[in-house]
UniProtKB/TrEMBL annotation, chain A:
It is a single-pass membrane protein. Residues 58-96 form a coiled coil. NCBIfam families: ATP_synt_b, PRK05759.1-3. Component of the F(0) channel, it forms part of the peripheral stalk, linking F(1) to F(0). F(1)F(0) ATP synthase produces ATP from ADP in the presence of a proton or sodium gradient. F-type ATPases consist of two structural domains, F(1) containing the extramembraneous catalytic core and F(0) containing the membrane proton channel, linked together by a central stalk and a peripheral stalk. During catalysis, ATP synthesis in the catalytic domain of F(1) is coupled via a rotary mechanism of the central stalk subunits to proton translocation. The lineage of its organism: Bacteria, Bacillati, Actinomycetota, Actinomycetes, Micromonosporales. Its main location: membrane. It comes from Paractinoplanes toevensis. This is ATP synthase subunit b.
Automatic annotation (TrEMBL), chain B:
Gene3D superfamilies: ATP synthase, F0 complex, subunit A. Key component of the proton channel; it plays a direct role in the translocation of protons across the membrane. One of its GO terms (molecular function) is proton-transporting ATP synthase activity, rotational mechanism. Belongs to the ATPase A chain family. It comes from the Bacteria. Keywords: ATP synthesis, Cell membrane, CF(0), Hydrogen ion transport, Ion transport, Membrane, Transmembrane, Transmembrane helix, Transport. The chain crosses the membrane at residues 36-59, 96-115, 127-146, 158-181, 187-212, 224-247. It is a multi-pass membrane protein. This is ATP synthase subunit a. PANTHER family: ATP SYNTHASE SUBUNIT A (PTHR11410:SF0). It comes from Paractinoplanes toevensis.
Amino acid sequence: MLNTILAEAAAETEHNPIIPIWQEIVLGLIAFVVLVVVLTKFVFPQMEKTFAARVDAIEGGIKRAEAAQAEANELLERYRAQLAEARTEAARIRDEARADAEGIRQDVLNKAREESDRIIAAGQEQLAAQRESIVRELRSEVGTLAVDLASKIVGESLADEARSRGTVERFIADLDSAGTTGGRR
Amino acid sequence: MTGQSIVLAADVPFPPSVEDFYLPSILPWAEHDNYWFTKITALVWLTTALIIIYFLVSYRKPQLVPTKKQWLAESIYGFVRNNIAVDMIGPRGVQFAPYLTTLFCFILLNNFWGIVPFVQISPNSHIAFPAFLAVISYVMFIAVGIRHHGVVKYFKTALIPPAPWFILPLLIPIEFFSNFLVRPFSLAVRLFANMFAGHMLLLVFTLGGFAMLNANAWFAPFSVVSWVMTIALTFLEFLVICLQAYVFTVLTASYVQGALADGH
C-alpha cells in the first residue's frame, strides 16, 4: 500500500516523501545536537554520579558494618582473653594469700606457744622463789613463835639464851629437813 | 490536519495525498516551499525544549533517596542504560548510554506528536529527521569500530567472516552490503515509513468518514465506524511509536556492539 501511495505521490505531486528537505535536516540536526549536548553534559553524568553514590552508600554501609563487626569481635576476643588472664591471676593471688595466711597463722601460733611456755616457766620460777622465801620466813617465824609459846607454857622466861638458842637451832634444822621433803611432794 | 479537515468538512480532500504532509509555513505565514519554520520544525524545537526542561527540572537537585520526579527521570535513563546499552553492548555500554537515551527520548517524543490531539503529525514522518539520526548512528558505529580496532582490523573483522576461503568472494560483498550500505537506509526508512504510514492511516479513516458523510447522508453509520477506527488506530499508533523509538535505539546499540566485538 505504501509503495503505491509513494508511486502515486511521486508521479503526481511536487513533493517526494523520501527526498529529505535540507532545511529540515539542518534544523533537526541543530536541535538534536543541542539536546545531546545539554543532556549528556548536565543530566546523565549527574545521574551516573547519583547511581555511583547510591551504590557506594549501600556497599560502603555494608563494608563499614562488616568492619565494625570484625572490630567488635576482635575486641570481644581480647576482652575474653584479658578476663581469663585476670581470673588466673586472681586465683594465683588468692592461693598466695591463702599460703601467706597459713604461714602467718603458723608463725603466730608458734610465737604464742613460745610465749605461753615462757610465761609458764617464769610463773613456775616465781612460784618456786616465793615458796622459798615464804618457807624461809616461816622458818624464822616458827622459831620465834615456838619460843614464845614455849616460854608461855613453861611460864618462865628462858633466861639462858644461849641454851635456848641451841635448842631452837636444832629444832629448826630438823624442821628444815622435814620441810624440804614436804615441799617437794 | 484533523482540525483543518473539520473546518473543511464541506469539501474534504479525499483520498489524502503526500501533499498533506507538507504544510504551509508558519513564518512567513502560509507560504509554500518555505521550510525554515513550519509546524514540523516547530514541533522538533518543542520536543527538544520539552526534553531539556523536563530533565533539567526533575534532576535539578539529585538526592540519594530520589523523589518521585527524580525517580521517573532516572528510570528513563536507567531503562535505556541497563536494558539497551548494557544488555546489548556489555559493561562498555555505559559510556554510550547518555547518547542512546537522548536518541530514544528524541525519537519517542517526536513520534508521539503523531497521536497528540490537534497536533497529530510526527516530524519523523518527514524523512529528513530519521535520515540524519541514522547517519549519526552510522558514523558513530564505524568511528567506534575504527577507534577500537584500528582501521584495517576493523574492516577486516566487519567484512571477513570466519568461513572457508572459497566462499569469501561471495560473503564479503554481502557483508559489505548489509553492514555498510543497507544499515543507514533501513534505520531511516523503517522509522520514517512507520510514522508516515501511521499518519496516512489516521488521515484515511478520518477523512474517509467525512467523505462518506458528504457523499450520502445515509452513510453516516459508516462514517462513525470509520472514526471509531481512527480512535482504535490511534492506540495502535501509540504502540508503533514506542516500538519504533525502541527499535531505532536498540539497533544503534547493536551496531555499536558489532563494531566493538572482537570475534565475528
